[in-house]
């Protein structure tokens, strides 16, 4: 059994939701997993108590959360000594024509921080129209016009996350960590997802 940290930064809550799903899936494999918002780390927080780290961040106006960027930069040396993964949440990842743009955000982030995670995942985000004021709702409808269809009415909240892709990413990260650390999951093969 290994200990995983799933550290994330979130703007509107979808990255937190994905981090919780990753944590639950890792736990089902028999490992300890904790999801922590980068802004809510306890004073006693230390990376040394974890065997592996998964970091998640969302894109807003072309940038990841500053707190996530700073965390990676400040802890790059420790992270380089352990198994790590990074996942990005963005509307661009949900749009076939903009996936290259989403990949560019990841590449820029990794170049800026000097971090080289072992695994990378990119997932579509969500639009929380029920939480937006009039102007933001109007702006977000224009930004996401290519993604919004009749099935995805722009009046209610719309989720673009491919949960099967999140589960596959988590299984890949878990298997990589298990192989690198020489530990096996404590659960049968069919309950890994």
UniProtKB/TrEMBL annotation:
User: The organism sits in which domain of life?
Assistant: Archaea
Q: Which InterPro entries match?
A: Flavodoxin/NO_synth, Flavodoxin_CS, Flavodoxin_dom, Flavoprotein-like_sf, Protoporphyrinogen_IX_DH
Domain Flavodoxin-like positions: 4-168
A matching Pfam family: Flavodoxin_5
Protein known as: Flavodoxin domain-containing protein
From which organism does this entry originate? Answer: Halorubrum glutamatedens
Q: What is the lineage of its organism?
A: Archaea, Methanobacteriati, Methanobacteriota, Stenosarchaea group, Halobacteria
């Amino acid at each position: 059994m290994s200990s995983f940290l799933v550290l994330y930064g979130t703007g509107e809550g979808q990255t937190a939701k994905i981090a919780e799903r990753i944590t639950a899936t890792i736990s089902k494999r028999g490992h300890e997993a904790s999801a922590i918002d980068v802004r809510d780390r306890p004073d006693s927080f230390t990376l040394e108590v974890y065997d592996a780290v998964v970091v998640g961040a969302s894109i807003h106006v072309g940038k990841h959360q500053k707190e996530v960027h700073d965390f990676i930069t400040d802890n790059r040396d420790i992270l380089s000594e352990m198994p790590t993964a990074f996942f990005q949440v963005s509307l661009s990842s949900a749009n076939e024509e903009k996936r290259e743009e989403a990949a560019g955000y990841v590449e820029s982030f990794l170049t800026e921080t000097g971090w080289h995670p072992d695994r990378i995942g990119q997932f579509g985000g969500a639009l929380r129209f029920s939480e937006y004021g009039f102007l933001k709702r109007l702006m977000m409808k224009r930004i996401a016009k290519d993604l919004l269809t009749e099935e995805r009415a722009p009046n209610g909240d719309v989720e673009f996350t491919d949960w099967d892709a999140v589960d596959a990413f988590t299984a890949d990260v878990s298997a990589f960590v298990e192989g690198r650390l020489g530990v096996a999951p404590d659960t049968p093969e069919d309950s890994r997802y």
